[in-house]
Specification:
about 375 residues; alpha/beta; Rossmann fold; 3 domains
């Protein structure tokens, strides 16, 4: 029997992810964003013979789970999937994770998706922010709700999500983590936001997104669905960069890692099983900052047209990418450089005959579909 895949599988595979088996994830009332889940993923990754290209792995895990709601009763079966990129320190990792998750959610029927995002910076930035936050609340302790006046550095972040009106009022002028970012962390946040803007992702800075245990560094984000008529938000997923946790698992060795975990109620509609993914015909190559910013939107255009491609957006050098394309034995490469990004064109290169053609992006899809 031919192997079949579903819509989430196909989206993940198109964006370069490969599946990995990991222990089931149990969630309590909202998508998981806890150390235990990341430890599970990392241990599965380290103990497996998972393919690692240029010391980078893009992993996805698509499974159903059963979660308890806030009353302790079992909720309907939920669909859970997670995406991890291990080995990429640049902001393109967060961009790929967020883009893939959003497209997969859209395939499941969700609309009006937005991203709340924050940065807590590196370890030093985070500690400076934590100390300043504690001092702020300590100096204003009498203005807090009586139940919240027993301050400790361990639970100081609870005040950022407290619903007491006194705490909410005081939070307006509380220190923000992004004000304490190092230059490197500022550049990292700027890079991620540029990718989101380039791909038309609706986002806002959410100061309440904090890593309370300091396992998660730099970027933290949430993905939500907005019902504008009811003025309601539904939390669909959480994610972020967990370099510090990966370092602990690797016993002090640097291992940059980014994750998103999504949980949604399983659709009542019959789930369509799609034919197995066809062998890729194209390898997408990008080089240069402007080209990289345009890459995700072009990759999505190709996905929507049913074209099977492969790419490694985390690789910057053209020579490295063209070599991988040749080793992959795909017949064609789609090349987007700085000049092409400015001219709204791409180069389509026949790797078998070493011939190439400049094609306007507006004419790209019909041109690619007629290639043999």
């Amino acid at each position: 029997m031919a192997k079949t895949i579903n819509g989430i599988d196909r989206v993940a595979m198109h964006y370069g992810f490969e599946t990995i088996e990991s222990p089931p994830i149990h969630l309590d009332s909202q998508p998981s964003f806890c150390p235990e889940e990341k430890i599970s993923i990392l241990k599965s990754y380290l103990s497996s013979e998972f393919p690692r290209k240029n010391n980078v792995s893009m992993i996805y895990n698509n499974q159903n789970s059963s979660a308890n709601n806030q009353t302790g009763k079992k909720s309907p079966t939920c669909k859970n999937f997670s995406l991890d990129i291990v080995g990429v320190k640049e902001g393109i990792a967060e961009a790929i994770i967020i883009q893939t998750a959003i497209v997969a959610l859209m395939e499941e029927g969700f609309k009006d998706i937005s991203v709340g995002i924050n940065s807590v910076g590196d370890k030093e930035s985070f500690m400076l922010f934590k100390n300043e936050l504690f001092n702020y609340y300590k100096s204003n302790v009498n203005e807090l709700h009586p139940e919240c006046r027993n301050l400790s550095k361990k639970n100081i972040f609870n005040l950022l999500t407290c619903n007491h009106k006194e705490c909410q009022a005081l939070r307006m002028n509380a220190p923000k983590s992004i004000y304490f970012l190092s230059e490197h962390s500022q550049r990292h946040l700027k890079e991620v936001l540029e990718h989101l803007e380039s791909n038309g992702v609706t986002y806002s800075i959410d100061d309440s997104l904090i890593s309370t245990n300091n396992y998660f560094s730099k970027i933290i984000f949430e993905i939500k669905s907005i019902d504008t008529k009811k003025n309601e938000e539904t939390l669909l997923g959480k994610g972020g960069r967990y370099d510090e946790l990966a370092r602990k698992i690797m016993r002090g060795k640097d291992l940059p890692a980014v994750n998103v975990s999504v949980e949604i109620e399983k659709s009542k509609n019959k789930q369509t099983r799609l034919p197995s993914e066809k062998k890729p015909k194209f390898y997408f190559i990008q080089f240069g900052p402007k080209a990289k910013l345009r890459s995700l939107s072009l990759i999505e255009l190709l996905r929507q047209s049913g074209l099977v491609i492969r790419q490694n957006l985390y690789i910057d050098k053209f020579s490295d990418q063209i070599e991988i394309a040749k080793q992959s034995k795909v017949p064609y490469a789609i090349i987007l450089g700085q000049k092409e990004a400015s001219d709204d064109t791409v180069i389509v290169k026949d790797l078998r005959e070493a011939s190439q053609k400049i094609v306007p992006i507006t004419s790209l899809l019909p041109y690619l579909k007629q290639l043999r």
